Amino acid sequence: xxxxxxxxxxxxxxxxxxxxxxxxxxxxxxxxxxxxxxxxxxxxxxxxxxxxxxxxxxxxxxxxxxxxxxxx
Length: 72
Description:
alpha+beta, 2 strands, transmembrane helix, transmembrane, membrane
């Protein structure tokens, strides 16, 4: 089973490397008055990480609210 996980990790890493190589062009991102130019691959990683952080925070908040309901 360890070999299967190792092969899966290698495949995912290769897919990520291909994603980076194919999306290296620079894009401009505008938010309100801010403007920023960065590689598309980096933008994808930043958006993914922000989604993970916000999702984890939201799940923690939901768990906390549910635990308060069960205590009452």
